[in-house]
């Protein structure tokens, strides 16, 4: 038994039958109610970041005294004093020296160690955990331990050198050796961190380009240089960017081990600013140094970000 067709024009026919149904407008679920959720984060960011930066800028253009009084607006007098101070240029040179040396060595060693950590061998996870011990250790503790290791008379470093017939080294007392000693400590502490990021990047690389290179008869080194490194460039850039921000702000380990000495040979911008504010009691000049440090971080980090965006295209 079949249902008879409805008569044309009958009252039972639905009005507008045969006409296309109106399309409902799609509403983006994120278009409504965004600000009530984002506003707390924006306010917290403004309070914790923007307000201190604005206050530091105000200090840098005023004459703040250690007792809390402020004699008023000075303009760019503190900046003129900073640019005319040879100690500022020395601290900038030390900052850039440690930044370049540590970043290059940590990247190269991290790349080699990251490749080893990416191999599927027994005990790989245990090895990774042990390698990360320096990176998760507080920098103050690392500085104290290495201060004992580099002690000129009782330190382990000179005892090892004596075993192989090398004269003792004044690791932290020689202005020519102290910056390299600080760099050695930072490389020891943070190379495993770089290796962990790079090993994760290596394990996430696609296999097809390497298989195609093997079919073309490319050697292992040529494949790594022409295929692996270009694919790994975004990961390397991120890892270097993370270390860049920390290296430019280098403070804790240096202050524990040398406090900027000897003869200002390890006096970075951050250490110089701390000494100016809390040792020499010059808060406005110290704020000026911190603004200079902020600009340096923004310039270097911005350069890495631009390079990362260019590499990802």
TrEMBL record:
Compartments where found: Cell membrane
SUPFAM superfamilies tied to this protein: MetI-like
Region (Disordered): 1-25
Keyword Zinc-finger carried by entry: no
Low complexity bias (residue ranges): 1-21
Short name of one Pfam family: BPD_transp_1
InterPro entries assigned to the protein according to its UniProt record, in alphabetical order: MetI-like, MetI-like_sf, UgpAE/MalFG_permease
Entry's transmembrane regions: 33-58, 96-117, 129-149, 285-307
Membrane topology: Multi-pass membrane protein
CDD domains the record matches: TM_PBP2
Gene3D superfamilies per the UniProt record, alphabetical: MetI-like
Name of the protein: Sugar ABC transporter permease
Domain ABC transmembrane type-1: 92-306
Keyword set, alphabetical order: Cell membrane, Membrane, Transmembrane, Transmembrane helix, Transport
Predominant place of localization: membrane
Family statement drawn from the similarity comment of this UniProt entry: Belongs to the binding-protein-dependent transport system permease family.
